[in-house]
Design brief:
Layout lengths: L1 E10 L2 E11 L4 E5 L6 H8 L7 E6 L10 H4 E4 L11 H11 L4 H10 L15 H13 L5 E5 L7 H16 L3 E6 L2 H7 L2 E6 L2 E7 L10 H12 L8
Parallel strand pairs: 3-7, 3-8, 5-6, 6-7
Antiparallel strand pairs: 1-2, 1-4, 8-9
Helix pairs in contact: 3-4, 4-5
The structure holds adenosine-5'-diphosphate.
The site of adenosine-5'-diphosphate (ADP) has 10 residues, from helix 1.
Length: about 240
């Protein structure tokens, strides 16, 4: 379970996050949706202990990331598909991660099979397609069998088969009772993958929507998203 409370992040005097609060529950896929610059990556980076908030808190299982003793066992994250060194093989990359986290080699073989990379496990990551690198990122996130999975823009640049694979993988991880949070600026993707959507604009939570409720409210997610974020978008005149 993820809890973000009154989270504020200032870069200089500009707020990237402005007293942002939300919760992410287990058992469903939650989409974190907002236009570019809305503050999604900043939130995820604070949640994962990579940035410090100006004020407020972001908790995983009731604790900030830096207080989690065995982080890989509690939260698996993919922030960047290119986190693995291109000169390493997929197996070597995961072995290194596993060793530094006290995880056995059998688990490396298991996650390679789970993400469909067993046949190319001993090939160098430099020769992998974006879809294969995304799968490797997810394998790394699953190594410690964590209850919380966080992905930043996982479908960016993926082909249709890759997108379908990510979608079904995230749904099955949620069905196993895990907490799954994925960020995206693509409303169509989020509508197909997530059960619940948090809509962010200018560092604030604009709305929280259950995808199943949308037809009842007579609107598509796209309608709701554009209505909400249209007001939050900034248009600047380009000087001539
Ligand atoms: P998103 O992930 O939704 O696209 P970000 O979290 O990357 O949004 O950015 C939120 C805001 O914070 C943007 O206005 C961005 O320009 C600004 N920002 C992000 N990182 C930095 C940084 N390191 N220094 C200054 N401003 C930043």
């Amino acid at each position: 379970m993820i809890a973000v409370r009154e989270l504020t992040k200032l870069y200089g005097h500009t707020p990237a996050l402005d007293r942002l609060s939300f919760e992410v529950r287990p058992g469903v896929v939650t989409g974190f949706l907002g236009p570019n610059g809305a503050g999604k990556s900043t939130t995820l980076r604070i949640l994962l202990g990579l940035h410090r908030p100006t004020s407020g808190e972001a908790l995983i299982g009731g604790r900030p990331y830096r207080r989690i003793r065995r982080p890989l066992h509690e939260v698996g994250a993919v922030l960047d598909a290119d986190a693995a060194h291109p000169g390493r093989t997929a197996r070597h990359h995961l072995d290194c991660l596993a060793r530094t986290n006290g995880i056995g080699r059998a688990r490396v073989a298991a996650v390679l099979a789970e993400v469909g990379l067993a046949a190319v496990a001993d090939k160098r990551v430099g020769g992998f397609s974006l879809g294969m690198r995304q799968r490797l990122g997810i394998a790394g996130a699953l190594l410690g069998d964590p209850g919380v999975i966080v992905l930043d823009e996982p479908v960016n640049g993926l082909d249709a088969a890759g997108i379908r694979w990510i979608r079904s993988t995230l749904r099955s991880l949620a069905a196993q009772g895990r907490t799954v949070l994925l960020s995206s600026h693509l409303m169509s993707e989020v509508a197909l993958t997530a059960d619940r959507v948090l809509i962010l604009g200018r560092g604030r939570l604009l709305d929280e929507i259950s995808v199943a409720d949308l037809p009842v409210r007579g609107a598509t997610l796209e309608d709701v998203y554009l209505r909400l974020t249209g007001e939050a978008a900034e248009f600047r005149a380009v000087p001539r």
